[in-house]
Amino acid sequence: MKGAPMKAAPMSRVFPIALNTFREAVRDRVLYNLVAFAVLMSGAAILVGQISVGIEKLVVINLGLTAVSLFGVVISIFIGIGLVSKEIDKRTLYTLLSRPVRRWEFVVGKFLGLVGTLVLNTFFMAIGVFGALLYVAHHFAKPDAWVLVALYFIILQFVIVTGLALLFSSFSSPLMSAVFAFSLFIVGAFAEDLRGFARMTKGITRWIATGAAYLVPNFSALNVITPVAHGQPVSGQLILYNTAYALIYATMAICGAVLIFERRNLK
Amino acid sequence: MLAIKILGLEKIYNVGFWRKKPKYALRPLHLNVGEGEIFGFLGPNGAGKTTTLKLLMGLVFPTAGTARILGMEIDDPRMKAQIGFLPEQPYFYDYLTARELLEYYAQLSGVAAKERSRKADEVLAKVGLPNVAGLQLRKFSKGMLQRVGIAQAILHDPKLLFFDEPMSGLDPLGRRDVRDLMEQLKHEGKTVFFSTHILPDAEALCDRVAVIHDGELKGVGAVADLTSGVRGKIEIIWSGRIIPPAFKGLGADCHVTGDTVRAIVSEECQDAVLDALRNAHLRLISLSPVRNSLEAYYVSKLQPGKAAAEVRP
Predict the structure, then answer these.
(1) How far is B182 from chain A (nearest CA, A)?
(2) Long-range pairs for A170-176 at CB < 8 Å and ≥24 separation?
(3) Tens digits of residue pLDDT in B24-47
């Protein structure tokens, strides 16, 4: 074939797959959730302005960031679980993998496409949060900048959840993948408590509890909504640690998904 | 040089919940396809045609055996850059337009950015869809999707094409177009390996065919050889509805259809039947030797007993 396409870097195939995944999400009207979010934030801003005195910002930041997190997690799980299985079920994968596309390039491309969609979604939601904040406070204060860090941590959560959804979808049905991913998200939200519990136990229970506590994703460390809502700063060290943790965790999940998918028969 | 060399490719699925039993989807298959050939892979539904194609495309992994395509391993991406594949009943990203889909695939196949749009339009015209490039695929009929499937397979000018039931879902005109396209591909020096259970298509197009049934290769042969043999019988057609009495003694197999009679007799009786027609003042329409057909070969491989008893032109 006229040249040797495999001389091209893997990113020349990963990027189009990511772009197509993004395009699919947009055309399947995934970003319509922004309308619901906009309605929620507008309503909250107006309502909070009327019923709370002195804690408007606290309520708006708490509500806004929690909504950003939940909306994004729901999207990352429900789209993430279908990223691979939908392509197998609809057999769109056949014409893709019969091209010079390696299976890992497909998985990574799908992952990056969904993460890109979530980042864009979060960007628009962040505009909504800051808009509501401006509405209730009439001006921005310096500590409001920490909201950006909280949003960054929320994106890191999405990166992990998307990786896990992809991992589960590489070996189980969409329904079971959703159950696994949601369960892990909820357990991960209490990861610090689980670690505390592990420290209190003894013997074999301690081993099991400690293992489980470190195996589940530590979403509680990525949740700084409450301190940020109170205007407290986030340390640079935590930002660094959380970034490294999320990237390593997601990479491991993606590697697991790739390892399974590389061996899977597409019946 | 061989375009495809299959060496004992085998696929077994373990079926059952508790006590898994092996199910042969493909028994060890040995097959060679030369460059520039149109090769038909024939068999009924569930024979193992699609499994073979999926194994060659690396979509499922063999239990045993291997294959080389264009001299390379089946998982070699350099090889995949030189092949095109049309799956059975293809389905594509329906939120894309035909042009977007083809440009996407062209990008994945390594077609230069400046050529993608032109290539997409070119192949859409080639498959008879010149005016729908901007239409979303969810609005396409089954036949149109089949044509898009062919377009994406030939998009990057591959040396070797794999088509799984390429005529499926096409109307007679569409089938003729695809046949013409495959002949054109052959003239361009491409190798085409296609599966089908539509025998007239295979007979019209293929240089060689293989018959597969129950996951087992039953036979391989050149179409010219399979259909050139004369069976020692002749077919005679005359006008009217009368069958001369002399035909009974000649062991003729006669059928009256409308205002013509068709009879099949052994070659040795040729003079006798002509005399009988002349004596009865009947008008001869045609007399021709009965040749082997691909259908007869196919049936002989699938149902050996039945085929031996049948004599069909």
Answers:
(1) 19
(2) A170/A84, A170/A107, A170/A256, A170/A257, A170/A260, A170/A261, A170/A264, A171/A260, A171/A264, A173/A85, A174/A81, A174/A82, A174/A85, A174/A86
(3) 999 999 999 999 999 999 999 889
Among candidate residues B78, B77, B82, B67, the one with its CA nearest the CA of residue B5: B67
Q: What is the DSSP string of B204-262?
A: HH-SEEEEEETTEEEEEEEHHHHHH-EEEEEEEEEESS---THHHHTT-EEEEETTEEE
Average pLDDT, chain B: 89
Q: Which fold has domain B2-226?
A: Rossmann fold (3.40.50)
How far apart, in whole angstroms, are the C-alpha atoms of residue B11 and residue B52? Answer: 9
pLDDT digits (tens, 9 = 90+) for B54-63: 999 999 999 9
Q: What residues of chain B, 95 to 114, have a C-beta less than 8 Å from chain A?
A: 95-96, 104-105, 107-110
The domain defined by B230-291 folds into: Alpha-Beta Plaits (3.30.70)
Hey, are the CB atoms on B152 and A13 less than 8 Å from each other?
A: no
SS3 assignment for B20-42:
CEEEEEEEEEEEEEECCCEEEEE
Beta-sheet pairing, B83-86 with B160-164: parallel
Give the pLDDT score at B258. Answer: 86
Q: Does B158 touch chain A (CB under 8 A)?
A: yes
- Listed by start position, the domains of chain B span 2-226, 230-291
Q: Do B77 and A102 touch (CB under 8 A)?
A: yes
Strand partners for A104: none
